[in-house]
Batch of 2 targets.
Target 1
Amino acid sequence: MVRIKQAVQMDHSPYLVPTGQPVDLRAWTTDDDGGLDKRAAKDRTDDLNDRIEALQELLFAEGRHKVLVIIQATDTGGKDGTIRHVFDKVNPQGVKVASFKKPTEEELGHDYLWRVHRHAPKSGEITIFNRSHYEDVLVVRVHDLVPPEQWERRYEHINAFERLLTDEGTTIVKLFLHISKDEQRERLQDRLDEADKNWKFDSGDLRERAHWDQYQEAFRVMLERTSTVHAPWYVIPADRKWFRNLLVSEIIAATLEQLDMAFPPAEEGIRDLVIE
Amino acid sequence: MVRIKQAVQMDHSPYLVPTGQPVDLRAWTTDDDGGLDKRAAKDRTDDLNDRIEALQELLFAEGRHKVLVIIQATDTGGKDGTIRHVFDKVNPQGVKVASFKKPTEEELGHDYLWRVHRHAPKSGEITIFNRSHYEDVLVVRVHDLVPPEQWERRYEHINAFERLLTDEGTTIVKLFLHISKDEQRERLQDRLDEADKNWKFDSGDLRERAHWDQYQEAFRVMLERTSTVHAPWYVIPADRKWFRNLLVSEIIAATLEQLDMAFPPAEEGIRDLVIE
């Protein structure tokens, strides 16, 4: 049996949101550097991504576990960049990204978990949700898209849904990319000033920025009510992109290693075979 | 506004499984006739099916409600016949039947509610589940297809899933077609004896009949643990097909009438238009 040795070094517990306790989002730093410098962090991330690649191949070969990574962030928080930098080496056959944008008419005709559930990973797969069902207690809440008594019930639905997935063999990791309001201003300004970032600028982002405090409150309640033992949230300090990438790579690698996987046993007699 | 008047006559409460109370399936009759004779019942069913047709058209036009009808039964209990006789007049554009057979490899790779959730009705639709997620606490339980600690958790998942659907605008009706062991023997014998029923006979049915008591126990626990206020079970006495059809038509018609629907208002000024 081939096993891959432990390789994670960092203690992630400071970034884990404890279950059932009040959350004060202002107490969570956005500009942590883990005491590392950028060059060392980048090298380390690169090594970790090799390990993620190897572990993902094992997960696919074994075909037993399902892994779901849910990423939420403030606008410009770096969801796309995180996915690009952490999963840059994996085999796309076993890793899927599901991006949830404004729901279609067909999607709105169903309950809000309908479009999400169909993209849940199957055995041997890693699925990354770029935004997710949490939008239904974030943008929906901030913009009053449904009455409060309706979104209020959703925290319980979501916990039950994630409980179903984990009870039936899915490992769930939830990542909230946390940036400061100043950092968002700089990133939006860059999108205006730098020609190769202009395509990213959307004037809607400015309208959303005006709701900063309401979004922070919606994120706070999300973390407080849906960080469960079976599907915990991590708050990722994301002002420094290189630290964000390192920490997410650490958490993903550690999660895969904890699955304690092994390649399926070789077919009997295979060692005596010679291909002619 | 066009409204359709009340037309349901029977009291369905004796067939409703109360929430949170012990269930003794032997106390539920299989050969009720409601004090009616067959001819009168068939005429009445025919009238009700006209009403179901009209109400379904209204549901589709209004596009506001979703309706899910879940049908479970002992083998030969009459699921197919019920669907054929109750929904024979509706417009298939707004009424879908989802039949859940032995899961495919793709379906087994996901949690057991994955294949079911994707067929949940959308606004304006009626969906009928011919078998359902309840198989995952019936055949799966009787044949030990997963360990007890795994199916044990599923009653809670199922209640939470159905709660999600109802909270988000779906009306759920669950029908258990209840026949006696003698009636099953006669129906299986007919499938052997009558040339035009031979195609229905499957020797697997005899193997399942040998598990009669285990299935009755699994049905009993299902009714006891998943008849909720938001998604109640009805036990339909199904030895007499004509009574089964009448009672199901009554319940479906009553359920649709309780939605208190109305056709959408006409576009303003439409009454003055003359088509030239």
Target 2
Amino acid sequence: MEATLAITEAVTKKPKPDPNSLQFGKTFTDHMFTMEYKADEGWTNPQIKPYAPIEIDPAAMVFHYSQTVFEGLKAYRTKDGVVRLFRPEENFKRLNRSNKRLSIPPIDEKSAIEHLKQLVALEKDWIPTEEGTSLYIRPFVIATEPSLQVAPAKSYQLFIILSPVGSYYPTGIQPVSIMVEEDTTRAVRGGTGSAKTGGNYSAGYNAQAKATANGHAQVLWLDGMEKKYIEEVGSMNVFFKINGEIVTPELSDSILEGITRKSVIELLKSWKVPVSERRVTMQEVKDAYDNGTLEEAFGSGTAAVISPIGELTWRDTTMTINGGETGDVTTSLYKTITNIQTGKERDPFGWTLKL
Amino acid sequence: MEATLAITEAVTKKPKPDPNSLQFGKTFTDHMFTMEYKADEGWTNPQIKPYAPIEIDPAAMVFHYSQTVFEGLKAYRTKDGVVRLFRPEENFKRLNRSNKRLSIPPIDEKSAIEHLKQLVALEKDWIPTEEGTSLYIRPFVIATEPSLQVAPAKSYQLFIILSPVGSYYPTGIQPVSIMVEEDTTRAVRGGTGSAKTGGNYSAGYNAQAKATANGHAQVLWLDGMEKKYIEEVGSMNVFFKINGEIVTPELSDSILEGITRKSVIELLKSWKVPVSERRVTMQEVKDAYDNGTLEEAFGSGTAAVISPIGELTWRDTTMTINGGETGDVTTSLYKTITNIQTGKERDPFGWTLKL
Ligand SMILES: Cc1ncc(COP(=O)(O)O)c(C=O)c1O
Ligand SMILES: Cc1ncc(COP(=O)(O)O)c(C=O)c1O
């Protein structure tokens, strides 16, 4: 049995930020959720308490061997005060899949969602209501045992922190320029690519810096073995519309199973738009471009929801997709998913969880 | 210009542990070294202060994207009180190579060594003098900026913590059993394998658990692309003696350039023992075993120095090497390197730095 949730309210509350000048992931709310794992007690001591620096031993294993996993999801609030979470059960399922890959003990998904709901309810006033804004939710687990042994820790801490975020597209949905990365590798068969663990992200900083220096927004990652198959775009899954069909790389242990990806596929199926999950080579995309059948391309992820790709640079070729404009299917997906998330449209899939 | 080192001594000192019951990396000394990086000041504020938990924001980027690097080296003390560091300049060079891969700003290697010397001098009494014991030194850098943006941090902290360690071989040098891992991957071309960064280590926990469950001490890692070429053993580099020649996998961006490895190669060359750094397939080792020319095998690393491999299991074959006993070259390397480290033998290479 898990202990009951203890709630300590913050004595002083921070002023709420201007929703029009929010930077992603820089502002945090007044409270956070924490829970500990001890070898002999399991996950215990669930608490909501004031957001504050934590005290941690410099030998805590997370600092040395990066035994850590995280999640990212959003809560949306309408002007009339209704708060919706988008598919939180999928995030906690994925957290446990990541835990497994990183040898971290699984959490109870049901009670985690209950605790999250209580935290978000307490922080309700922090959720902006302006078009495109939301509350970004970041659950994460870190290994806290002080030990330099290269082995799974005996103690962990789970946190949920909350950050109000502004619109990803303050001036309307905008296609971006993407560079195909062929030197460095994000993930490989047998590695940690399908887990949401920190090491996958810092591994990509050099490639991202190169892309930025060359005027691109993000990199497109190829498979680590042959640098032939398309995997992801930045921290998003990727889709192409080729000759009327939507294709996306099939899942493998080097691709993160995005919840937006899953939603896109379900939505397309409900629309009877042909969609297939299969291996896609960069050459296939280039050939489609050359013969005029590369019709649209976009990334999918919690932060941007849908991010149209206007330009794709591979080696010496820059492909302009759909004249650099957002394609029709891309637009429909963006509108429908965000409308469901914010309650503007009916949710026939049961994706949203009202508080 | 870097600021001068500020030293705050601990008011109460911890009792020194029994050198015969030390577990690796579980006991820490009274003081630690810290230094901060700020975007507008560079590396600043070097301090030696009491070893204690640190205060850090839960949004600190190290927790989310594992932007972190570390090092490991040892100090040895003789009964007459002389303290020697083993090749510290190599460790700080490697730290900066790791920093580069992880987009962390480089540190000044010279001043880092000066600060390390001051820290070790202050903690001199913590260094055990018994046969095989030493003081393990763990420098590490973590990204401290509170931000959820997937990008290099603007602030960092470097720590050096110290841990007295017991003998790796309390009952004399012992060959171990190794299992070749073919499912999961530690590192791949274009990845972070040649950097000493946390993500490489927790990625191997599942494989290590499988090895342990099957009665093996460590795993042998193959290349991530073809699972054909030998890379490392656990957290050690690996050597084979085949038909009179010592061979070790050549360096690549998926192999950590070990300082013990480097010392082994230099020592073998000085002994005129044939040694070559080249690609080695698992099949080659198996063939050598089959035709009776696989004479010795060992791992090399700071913790064990030299770790003889008595048994190597690949798929259905278990190869017993040198009758399961430590080979002659393995023994000579272990003795000579440890003798140089502890000052029992002359150091013709200038490897040791006396305090
Ligand atoms: C590497 C990676 N790929 C894809 C995604 C998209 O996943 P989701 O749609 O669940 O946000 C993410 C997370 O945002 C990610 O970190
Ligand atoms: C992955 C890995 N390989 C090899 C080594 C050996 O390096 P060194 O001899 O510098 O300790 C280490 C560090 O101990 C390591 O972490």
